[in-house]
Amino acid sequence: MATPRISAYLPPDIDPTKAALAFGRRALPKLKEELQCPELLTQQRALMALCDLLHDPEKAYEAVALGFLDSLKTLLVHQDQTVRQKTTEALSVMALHSVGREGLIRSGVISALAGLLDDPVDICRKNTHQVFNMLAKLPEGAGGVLRAGLIPPLVLKLKTELDEIQELILDTLSNCLRVEVSEALAAGALTVLKEKLSHPSAAIRNKAAWVLLEISSHAEGKVAVCEEGAIPTLVRLLEDTEPEVQVNSAGALMFAIVTPQGRTSAMAAEAIPPLLALVAEETSKARLNAIKALTLLAELPEGRSTLLEHRDTFQRCLHDPSEAVQRAAEIAIAVIDWKP
Amino acid sequence: MVPARAPELTAPADLPYSFCSQPRSLASRPKYRKQSNAAETEKVPLHRCNIMIDPRVVRGNVLCARHPPESTEPSTREVKRQRRAQKQGLARRLTQEQIRTGTPEPVEGRQHVSVQTELYLEEISDRVIEVDGECQTDEFLDRPPTPLFIPAKTGKDVATQIEEGELFDFDIEVKPILEVLVGKTVEQALLEVMEEEELAQLWSHQRAFAELRNAEFAELQRLEEQDRRIREEKERRRLEHLEKLHKQKETAEKIAARAFAQRYLADLIPSVFNNLHDSGFFYDPIERDIETEFLPWLMSEVEETLQKKVLGRMMLDSLIRTVVEKRLDEFSHPPPPDQTETPAEEPRTTDAAPQVSDEADAADQPVEEEETDQPVEEEE
């Protein structure tokens, strides 16, 4: 019987590609049952509807509570590519929510996704890497990725994948390597990263420099970076056109030249002039990192002698709006003025 | 009937039900009481009937015509059981009859007759009158279906028709529907956009924190490195200093040892020379020569000379002796006119003898002295 009240829901069958949603609380349970249905069309339609629903945080929480993640895990190995694609998309959307991330880590989806790294369909791989990326931003997620032994395959994929996916991989790696670096070094990550530093795409250079930064924040990473001879490349990148790249390469240098060999190679590569240029620029974001790097170089006698002439640059930084930069400038001046 | 067991008011815990009197199966009673035992009541039911082996219970299909069970070939076990039961019953009955006192025997000339005293006499026989009756439903046909009830047509025929535009106006009515459609889509889109914005905010926040953290971390590492260098330097200097002290000590010891050795050995050469000198390693060759050759030769010559002298003297002695003996002989025989010669010769011989002995002594003494000198010199 027709009533004057119009429903707040979309009329049924408006989008034939999506399954019809049940009313209210029954929506997600019904979708879950449809996901397990043997008929392909039902599964696909249910997945399409699910992907749209999961953008809502409440629905995402409900989905995790209902145990959708296990059903999605079983669907990851389906033969049909649409099913796989939509499943990975649903997982990536779920990973955008905090409850979703926690649920993903708990239900061990990471190891299930590891099998999809070699999927022939691009979108599936992209979504997979997006999931890894989102998860790695959490400390537990990064730990989960490390524990699943995903670093060597990811490093290998860096050489062969598309650019977009490479960016995602580099992001994931940077977050994971903050925690532990030995596996990546064993897999030969530094050679790959050194190549990527000269990539035409600015985003890739930027992220590669960020990964190098994270690697060289560990002791064994520093040694490896010096041996690999990545410091001259980093010094060259200091003069890059993109400000982001400058920031990250200054940061990578800042960590890498803590070791004595790093310092000597940086002096040999004449790192001081570009770093000074970065410090002098008032609006550069790389100021902080550049000041730190110069502080390290000022501990060398020849560095100190060079920097004594440029002391006024640091004096100007003392009046910087950012507090961290002021502190760093003070420390730098103290180191430059130190007499044995 | 008095129940055989005491009533139990509460059931034990494991039984599913409770009872006041113990449940027991009822005995089989004959339909009519036995005449002879009308006054007595049975204390204990004699026959316990098991419904499973009661032959009166029909077994098998009850819906078809049954023939009476064949008693020509019953199973031996059944037969035995029946016979045993019969015998037991018989025995029991006999004992009961013996135990129980019946009615007294009739007086002579009289007879006991059983008589019915009810209002209406009834015929008593062992055999119960049975009448068979049966009934069977008639065979009926199925009820035919009810014919369709079509009431008689009454009233007037009326028709109606809805023209276009009379029910609703599409453009007005479609608006809310469209609003819902568009609204849902936009809502979904908004959700997604908000999500992305939220994430972008989070990441930028994280990024800022990461930068600060990295800067601090780098500072920390620099200070660590500095500290490590300073510590290493200190360690190295300390080791050097220790080395130096060690060397100094060694040198001092060496000097002391050297001084001591020098002092100790300063005496060495003179004492060695003295010893050698004393033991005669340094000799004057001429002296030695004289000592080894000349003096022995001299001594031997002296000895020879002395021997010669001694020999001469001995010869002289013997000559004198012979002469004296001869003279003695000569003088012993004749009285000697040479008596004055003999005392003169005797003092001469006695003088000669002491002179000879003095000379011999004198010669011996220098020889002895020389001989004693020689060994002394040789000692020296």
UniProtKB/TrEMBL annotation, chain A:
<dbReference type="InterPro" id="IPR000225">
    <property type="entry name" value="Armadillo"/>
</dbReference>
<dbReference type="InterPro" id="IPR042856">
    <property type="entry name" value="RSP14"/>
</dbReference>
<dbReference type="InterPro" id="IPR016024">
    <property type="entry name" value="ARM-type_fold"/>
</dbReference>
<feature type="repeat" description="ARM">
    <location>
        <begin position="229"/>
        <end position="253"/>
    </location>
</feature>
<dbReference type="InterPro" id="IPR011989">
    <property type="entry name" value="ARM-like"/>
</dbReference>
<dbReference type="Pfam" id="PF00514">
    <property type="entry name" value="Arm"/>
</dbReference>
<protein>
    <submittedName>
        <fullName>RSP14 protein</fullName>
    </submittedName>
</protein>
Automatic annotation (TrEMBL), chain B:
<feature type="region of interest" description="Disordered">
    <location>
        <begin position="327"/>
        <end position="380"/>
    </location>
</feature>
<protein>
    <submittedName>
        <fullName>RSPH3 protein</fullName>
    </submittedName>
</protein>
<feature type="compositionally biased region" description="Acidic residues">
    <location>
        <begin position="358"/>
        <end position="380"/>
    </location>
</feature>
<comment type="similarity">
    <text>Belongs to the flagellar radial spoke RSP3 family.</text>
</comment>
<keyword id="KW-0282">Flagellum</keyword>
<feature type="compositionally biased region" description="Basic and acidic residues">
    <location>
        <begin position="67"/>
        <end position="79"/>
    </location>
</feature>
<feature type="region of interest" description="Disordered">
    <location>
        <begin position="66"/>
        <end position="96"/>
    </location>
</feature>
<keyword id="KW-0206">Cytoskeleton</keyword>
<dbReference type="Pfam" id="PF06098">
    <property type="entry name" value="Radial_spoke_3"/>
</dbReference>
<keyword id="KW-0175">Coiled coil</keyword>
<dbReference type="GO" id="GO:0005929">
    <property type="term" value="C:cilium"/>
</dbReference>
<keyword id="KW-0963">Cytoplasm</keyword>
<keyword id="KW-0597">Phosphoprotein</keyword>
<keyword id="KW-0966">Cell projection</keyword>
<feature type="coiled-coil region">
    <location>
        <begin position="213"/>
        <end position="262"/>
    </location>
</feature>
<keyword id="KW-0969">Cilium</keyword>
<dbReference type="InterPro" id="IPR009290">
    <property type="entry name" value="Radial_spoke_3"/>
</dbReference>
